[in-house]
Amino acid sequence: MAQHHHKISRRKFINQGGLAGTGLLLSAQVPAWAGFRQPGPPLPVNDSHTKQMQALYERGTVTTYLKSKNELKYIGMPVGGINAGGLYLGGDGRLWLWDIFNLNQEGINPVDVPWKDAVHAGKKIRSRDGGSYVAPPRANEVRLLEQGFAVKLELGEKTVTRFLDERDWDEISFESTYPVATITYTDKALPVQVVMQAYSPFIPLDVDRSGIPASVFNIEIRNTGVRPVKATITGWLENKAAPYTGPVNRLERKSTAFHEQQLIGIDYTLEKSAFGNQQADKSFDFGTLCVAAINENAVTNVDVEEPYGAALFAAGAEQEILKAAQQKLIGAVLSPVEVGAGQSAAVPYVISWHSPNLVIDDGKVLPEADRGRYYDNRFKNAREVAGYVAANFKELSDLTMLWKTTWYDSSLPYWFLERTFINVSALASTTSHRFKSGRYWAWEGVGACQGNCTHVWQYAQGTGRIFPAMERDNRERVDLGVSLQENGGIWFRGEYDKRPAIDGQAGRVLGCYREHQMSADQGFLQRNWNKIKRATQFIMDQDKNKDGMVDTPLENTLDAIWDGEIAWIVGLCIAAVKAGEQMAEEAGDAAFAAVCREYVRKGTRNMQDHLFNGEYFIHRPDPVKGRKNVGSYNTCHIDQVFGQSWAFQVGLGRVTDPQQSRSALRSLWKYNFVKDMGRYAETHKGGRPYALSGESGMVMNTNPKNEPQPYGENAAWQMGYFHECMSGFEHQVASHMMAEGMTDEALMLTRAIHDRYHAAKRNPFNEIECSDHYGRAMASYGTFITACGFEYHGPRGYIRFAPKWDKENFKGPFTAAEGWGTYTQKTEKGTQTITVDIKYGVLQLNQLSLEKTAGLRKGKVSAAVGERQIAVKTVAKGAELRILFTGPLRLQPGESLTIVMGA
């Protein structure tokens, strides 16, 4: 969030009286696992509570939304490649949103929406203030162009046509397993079942092959009857290239059929007319589209007059057609299949696009090289995109499905895996871009607040683990490149705001340590150490009184400059300096490591002695200014131990006293977790509506001491933030609670967010803060990290797993610098067996750290890769066991490392 971009409008918004109100009453009944819980420890013990707690931990089943429960209308799963635009898959399999044409709109539905409760009648909310939360867009209301699929079935003498949308089937189920959705269509009158798997190629660690501007639809017909079925699968798409400027520029749209080996489809291009704009190819939305089937028997129809009529299933004689942009032009690709009794047949379809003319803010701020889309370097048009997908279909599809299987094949609950991973899909929205120069660039949320904002994106743990090359590039090209100043300060919005934000500064130093850890060697650190050192020194320079606690007023993520010594900023900076210490040691800079070590020692002691009030950490006012300006002061602030939370993400150990840290988290649970945000909002005005009546969440600040002016003596518009539930902050707290052993609270808080985004209420794939698909929400991945007790250091060849529950029978995915796979541990009859399976890439290991489970008997430790025995040494410290390999291991796909203890 940033004050300078929308200060006046936000103040106006908050001064309207606070839109959190009493909330909307929902007709749909959805689970509310967190709702049973009144805030405040100790946890109640009764049968009902026990059963509901058990449900949070249970494996459960895949989250499946149903037509029969009215759960499909809001679903919008991003199915375009990362950094390639924003395209939604609806709950019934039709595409919507179509934000792939460089419109740079703010929010997925950039209109002010009404707030329809009695208290706030007549008020409206913008996208950046929660419009899509209060009035979630419905798929049927945001369809820019015609698109869909249908099947024609020949059942003996009977012919039946069914369109793959919710109007034509008794039941449709949507399995929410991002990055792949499985949609099943059933009708009790038909002896077939249709199953669609929809996705864009998604391969962790591989940015390029995960950034293809295309969506894949594998449509399978399953014959559940006793007779063969002849079927025709048809996919259609409207030629609406240059949808906004095409008619104005008097362009013509051309549809051309093509046949390339097994890829058969229609290429949608644009032609200039004699009386049109001859510079139309410079327009922001100029480009091409394509629809194709990977099926050698497919045929085409370049001009279907009515997509919901019989003509849809008729092959056309024409191979090319040209129409004025004002006219509707729809093409279809037909794929005949025969399906034997009890058999199935599938046809993959590809819809691709190529709209290269991306320009942010009319190109006024960013350099010329940062105009255009990166995918334009790889593909000349949409047809080339489709051709690439077809030529590499097996590998792209297999690896995408392999990741889906690897992620969800776990002992962790399905709902937990879904919620902690789902926000990575923000990278496949127009929140995130990659310019033609190769530079990654992001808004805070769709179209709102420019420039890879450091104090927002530092929370986002998902990108650095799933696509670490993106974050390494951002550190080098932006934070340590265009943004780094001589004094070590980092501009917190790149070219868009040439000043540092203290929390973002700390987060970027910590990010440098994570990016180093997620590298295969020392290259990243060696190239950047001198710059990282300057950035770390800048943090220490903000400590005016040299007590190890920064006290120089600088911008922070709550859009203000706070005075004094602020626990959450102090702790975050201590964690960053400790990361600087670790990097200094690895870089061979012993002198700077010693400086950092002393700063951390002094800061940790003083934070413990002076910023802890016996229950939680506080904001100590500036000795001169006092509480004149806005701040958190003696209140209970959601990020008060954020530094320790970050430290757990990168294996830094303790930066905050453990007893005080846990007390602070218990205080957040006691004071800030709210069972019903509707009731809370009745007496706490000013917040934006990110949780409504009947919904649970953790608010930003509370005033346990009942002070009359808890947030400062002068009213400030930023105070409205303190009464909000912003999911990125909540995920950060949940990840920390998980790391500290507060697994009940961590799961309940995560589940509260998950239930707020149930499909009966709004889009499960769109966690909202300042606009849609907000970057901070990727903090959710951090809760997965801490649930696994995962640590990793690629250059050292070090990996650690210490699961927080199901320790005797745990299975979960992991990603490393060059590969990913599955970790398993089991304990049976006093023997603990560890398995590390590599699914993709390679994993280089020198040592593995584990936690010995209860009941493990004493005995030897053996290790093997396949049938090959591996010599190891062991070092035990309490429950931790480190296994040191006498020589480095390099595990390949299909290889498994097995360690047996206590045999």
Account of the protein in words:
Residues 76-395 form the Glycosyl-hydrolase family 116 N-terminal domain. Residues 503-780 form the Glycosyl-hydrolase family 116 catalytic region domain. This protein is an alpha+beta fold. It has 19 helices and 41 strands. The strands form 11 sheets. The chain has a 10-stranded antiparallel beta sheet with strand order 1-9-10-11-12-20-16-15-14-18, covered by helices on one side. Strands 33-34-35-41-37-38 form a 6-stranded antiparallel beta sheet, covered by helices on one side. β7 (147-155) and β8 form a beta hairpin. α10 (502-517) runs antiparallel to α11 and α17 runs antiparallel to α18 (743-756). The two termini are 55 Å apart. The model is unreliable at 2-45 (pLDDT under 50).
Q: Mean pLDDT score, rounded?
A: 92
Number of helices: 19
Classify the beta-strand content into a percent band.
25-35%
Task: Identify the overall geometry.
Answer: globular
Major beta sheet, strand line-up: 1-9-10-11-12-20-16-15-14-18
Count of β-strands: 41
- Major β-sheet annotation: 10 strands, antiparallel
For this structure, the CATH topology of the domain at 464-667 is Glycosyltransferase
Question: How does the helix and strand content classify structurally?
Answer: alpha+beta
**Poorly predicted ranges (pLDDT <50, ≥5 residues)?**
2-45
**Rg to the nearest angstrom?**
28 Å
Helix content: 25-40%
The assigned CATH architecture of the domain at 464-667 is: Alpha/alpha barrel
CATH class of the domain at 464-667: Mainly Alpha
- N-to-C terminal Cα separation, in Å? 55 Å
